[in-house]
Amino acid sequence: MNSKIRGRCGFSRTGIVRSAPEGAPTEADSWSACPDLRKAIPRFIEMIHIILYNIAIFVSLFLVYPFPAQAEENAKLTVLSQYERSLLQANIIKGIDMLYSSRFDEAEELFHRMASAYPSVPAPHFYMAMVSWSRLATGFWSKAMVEQFRERLDKAIDIAGSRVDEVPGDAENHLFLGGALGFKGRFELMKENWFSSFILASDAVDHLNRCLKIDPTNKEVLLGLGIYEYYTAKMSGILKFLTYLLIRKGGKEKGLKKLHTAAADAIYSASEAKSTLVHIYMFMEEDYEKALSLVSDLVARYPETTRYHFLKGVCHIFKGEEDAYKETLSTLISRKNIIASQSEAMKWERVADYLSVTYAMIKNDLDSAILYLERLREKADPEGDPAMVAWPLLKTAMVYDLRGEREKAVGIYHSILNMDNGSGAQFLAKRYLSAPLRKGDPFIGY
Questions:
Q1: CA atoms within 13 A on the CB side of 1
Q2: What share of the chain is helix, strand, coil (3-state, %, to 5)?
Q3: Alpha-carbon gap, residue 394 to 444, rounded angstroms
Q4: Considering Cα of 71, then 77, then 78, then 80, what sign does the dihedral take?
Q5: What Cα–Cα distance (Å) separates residue 332 from each residue in 68, 138, 368, 380?
Q6: Which of 43, 127, 267, 281 could make a disulfide contact with 287, Cβ separation 3.0–4.6 Å?
């Protein structure tokens, strides 16, 4: 086995703490350093959970490889022709578009073929993990899928780490290791291992910065760096203890600037940078004008993705643009009428109803919201569209909170936490168990 890559707190490639340098804060130390830590952190962390849940960082590929008929098990890095580079660049772009269009089976087949052809190359293994993450992000949040994501991510970290050992001066090796470690940090955050998460994120940024130092023209790394800077600044402003934990101090405006640069100039991560900014502006900054411009671009590029249509409609609602909201709703309904597959058509219809629920809740028309929620329950497809089971249930609890019927809301929040597949709604359910939803909360539009 290759040598372990260790950060300042002794993380192996898979993010497991082995040992810490003398005097370094441990996870237990971080709790004892601030007596109110356990009280301060949960609510804001759950907000970060749900934002990060829908932000999947697709790191770009600069070193590209053709698909040979066979590949040796221990294939080494080779110098490729421009034609060979261009060939795999096209395949990576194709695979990313498949992920954004929810064509997960096709993407899995493509990236699996790449991983089989080049078992020692980080890129295909990283994107295999991204297929699993994309399934999670669209509602397939089963224990088996979470475990598949973890296993694939650990494999990507190990392979990328080996490449860094072999060729430390190669920018792309640091790029993929940084991206994979960043996802590992997010995985630790989901398990509420706060200190482990922050250290992994910091180690990820180390590698992204090394990539940038080797290749200053690389715009793809700005996505990961921008996310790190924005969220550490946002969290440090609310949770002061983070200044004790973090060596790097985030910068909100610097983070946003990096994300905008990636959105404008990156080749592979531009769309994900836009998606990240949409979620930041909608649910963190509540700047719906900026969010609308970005999500409109995503709707134009990925017209088959229901999520972007929904978010565009929510922006119109918060901005008070009734006609534009109705036009978006009409688009969802009309799409349902032209799709041949009944199961796919019903997904569009459910999203249209879900947008109607959201409109009614934002307008405080709670009776209408309940009616639409009842319609959604009647149309539920737990196997094919699990997100539209868990999230309407969450909206029902939210309606009860807005009505002041806290006991009913709490019961539903607990039921979501007990679901085999909470589709990500479990993160907001935990948040609103600690404090009830209030009118005007931006997450009514989630």
A1: 7
A2: 70, 0, 30
A3: 10
A4: positive
A5: 42, 17, 19, 17
A6: 281
Query: In terms of pLDDT, which residue wins out, 287 or 341?
Result: 287
Q: What is the mean pLDDT of residues 216-226?
A: 94
DSSP string covering 143-181: HHHHHHHHHHHHHHHHHHHHHHHH-TT-HHHHHHHHHHH
Q: Which of 54, 61, 51, 52 is nearest to 266 (CA)?
A: 61
- The percentage of the chain sitting over the pLDDT mark of 90, rounded to a whole number, equals 59
Q: Which residue, 201, 65, 176, is CA-closest to 126?
A: 176
User: What's the rounded Cα separation, in Å, for the pair 168 and 62?
Assistant: 16
Kindly tell me the burial class for residue 67, based on how many C-beta atoms sit within 10 Å of its own C-beta (0-12, 13-18, 19 or more).
Answer: middle
User: Do the beta carbons of residue 313 and residue 328 sit within 8 Å?
Assistant: yes
At 384-428, the pLDDT tens digits run 999 999 999 999 999 999 999 999 999 999 999 999 999 889 989
Place of tokens 């009514």: 444
Of 69, 173, 68, give the one whose Cα is nearest residue 123.
173
Assigned token pair, 356: 């109607």
Alpha carbons 64 and 72: distance in angstroms, whole number:
17
- Tens of pLDDT, residue by residue over 338-371, are 887 889 999 999 999 999 999 999 999 999 999 9
Q: Is the pTM of this model over 0.85?
A: no
Write down the H helix ranges in 217-365.
Answer: 221-238, 242-245, 252-265, 270-283, 288-301, 306-318, 322-338, 342-362
